[in-house]
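--- STAGE predict ---
source: upstream dedup step, 1 unique chain passed
mode: sequence only
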Amino acid sequence: MARDKRLTRREFIHYSAAGLAAASAGGVVAGCSGAEAPTMPVRTLGATGLQVSALSFGGGSQFLANPDGEWEVMLERAVAMGINLFDTSSSYQWEAGMSSEERFGEVLSPIRDQLIISTKFDSRDPSEAMQEFERSLERMRTDHVDILFLHAMAPQDDVAAIETGTYAMLRRLKEEGTARFIGFSSMDSAERSREAIEALDFDVALLAMNATSYGNFVAEALPSAREKNVGVMAMKVMRDIVGQSATAEELLAYALSLDGVATALIGHHGMPTLEENVRIVQAIGSGAAPAMADGERRHLESRLAHLAGPHALCWARPGYVDGKLA
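--- STAGE serialize ---
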């Protein structure tokens, strides 16, 4: 899509406000014909009280694969359709072009106060992590984020060391208001995630949870998050699975039917994929598509169990870095 087909700034702000208002209404609104049109469902993100869209927008490698002239329109369209949570990271950047955070700042900064923005830092050294965060704020043209994550909790992480290091930094930023809420992400260690949830007062956890059951996050970490009312965002819901192995409808229904999951964080490559996923989540939220029952989830897990590993999931391979070419 050519760059000159973008909405004007005034049109973007107008339609974005309308889309977000419809989503926050939590149900349906009347269309021009008088018929009820589905809107983006919203859910409460744990004890944060944030009302987040059930489908959230990931700024990693899938988003970065959209070329100039297309990613701008994709961000605008996502907002207009009611997505209000946009997630990125200081490390989401290819060698050429703008970083994911810079892309967010380019398009989303005019309506920053209507959105929920999250980003992540990688370093376990507090001073280096702070430098990452300060750069993130500059790139996104904002003075705060709604959620700040410690990126990629891994088996080698020591929760006690994190507590006195980057977690202490996160607590200070929360007290200052520069990060409204704090959390961590993990696609490598459900055990370490559970330990972090139980030992520390994180507000949000971004966890890899999909129907292959790879990593065992649903059984290992999700119950602890529910017990402490930690807001849970599901990632890696569809990556390398959707297509011949399972439908987008099945995979999104699986993640969004898990008790305690507020939103499915999806990276989109191409406008048709974004619009299809929005339609699916709207249908789930409106009741037009049935929720997935426990027995159906177990059946899907059994059907996809053979895909649970690095042989099928690129993001499970040693050395994979989120937000890079895979």
